[in-house]
Amino acid sequence: MYLCTMIEIGVYHTLSILRSTDPGLFLGDDDENEVLLPNRYVPESFNIGDKIEVFVYLDNEERPVATTTKPYITKGDFALLRCNQVTKFGAFMDWGLVKQLFCPFKEQVFKMKEGNWYLVHCYEDKETNRLAASSKTNSFLDNKNLTVNMFDEVDLIVSHPSDKGMNVIVNKKHLGLIYKEDLFADIYVGDKLKGVVKKVRPDNKLDISLGQIGYRNIEPNSEIILNSLKDHEGYLALNDSSSPEDIKEQLQMSKKNFKKAIGNLYKQKLIKITDDGIYLLKEDTEK
Fold first, then answer.
1. Is 172 left (phi over 0), alpha (psi -120 to 50) or beta?
2. pLDDT one-digit tens code per residue, 123-148
3. Residues whose CB is less than 8 angstroms from the CB of residue 85 and which lie 6 or more positions away in sequence, other chains included
4. Would you say residue 147 lies in a domain?
5. Cα angle vertex 235, ends 229, 211, to 5°?
6. Tens of pLDDT, residues 26-45
7. CA–CA separation, 212 vs 195, rounded Å?
8. Domain identity same for 230 and 275
């Protein structure tokens, strides 16, 4: 029997190859804890003492085991997973490993259906020490103690829609909201994006933008317009009088940000603004 009670499950480890046995390779850490890497994952060539990166989890017999296969989600993370099967015990999710990831009924916002995709959080069940999934992602987020400030660039995972816009997971720690008026491109549950903290409200709710805020918004939007001009032979049929819908369709930005950006480009003498649109000046084309 092989047993590992000290090597943390649900995460990656870089372990040393200790010895080769019939079931596979035994790997160990600096604290003399061991775990088996079954034969199906053993590399074609290796030497005793080599280091190897593995993911550790519990196999079908609840024994800690290592694998070189990279799962779609690790402990403490969020990911969009497919429900492969629903039984009387709960749902089983495809997370890229031989043993499927279990999601108990009590951890499902709505009863899962086979073949559908769900955004879930991977956690270690304290009672069983098994890895499990939960679609109740908000319960793993905390806005009481924020680790972000206004204007910070943040990593986002699109969580779920609401009447006001789209809820997002911020830095895998907090819940934020992108308002409808700030959505200038289609985004979907599970998408991983970059964003900026637009506002921190008194109740610690976070308003998020997919672009940069205020004066910080001018440079990246200016670059988008310049690139679009170059892609369209130096001309865009847009100006101050264009409708917000036309601007959004062509450039995926608001009219307010568009006007700031072209104003900045005009001051830098990079574009000419006319009644029929904006033109890229020859000096920029030659750069």
1. left
2. 999 888 899 999 999 999 999 999 99
3. 91, 92, 100, 114
4. no
5. 40
6. 999 998 899 999 999 999 99
7. 8
8. yes
Q: What are phi and psi of 142, to 5 degrees?
A: -140, 120
Neighbouring residues of 90: CB distance < 8 A, sequence distance ≥ 6: 102, 103, 104, 105, 107, 108
Q: Which residue has the tokens 């816009």?
A: 165
Distances (CA, A) of 282 to 261, 269, 287: 19, 10, 9
Instruction: Name the token pair of 210.
Output: 């997919």
pLDDT over 60 (residue 203): yes
Residues 17 and 58 in one domain: yes
180, 195, 211 - which closes a domain:
211
Q: Which of 134, 54, 137 is nearest to 97 (CA)?
A: 54
Residue 2 covered by a domain: no
Kindly report the CATH number assigned to the domain that includes residue 221.
Answer: 1.10.10.10
Query: What's the domain range around 190?
Result: 153-211
Q: Which CATH number characterizes residue 102's domain?
A: 2.40.50.140
CA atoms 148, 149, 153, 157: torsion sign: positive
Regarding whether 279 and 255 lie in a shared domain, the answer is: yes
Does the CA dihedral 264-270-274-277 come out positive or negative?
negative
Cα Rg of the chain (Å, integer): 25
Q: Distance between CA atoms of 75 and 208, rounded to whole angstroms? A: 25
21 located within any domain: yes
In a domain, 146, yes or no: no
Percent of the chain surpassing pLDDT 70 = 93
Task: Give the predicted TM-score (pTM) of the model.
Answer: 0.74
Place of tokens 């907090």: 174
Between CA 203 and CA 94 the distance in angstroms is: 37
Domain count, the chain: 4
208: closest CA among 250, 249, 260, 164? 164
Amino acid at 239: N
Per-residue pLDDT at 223 = 84
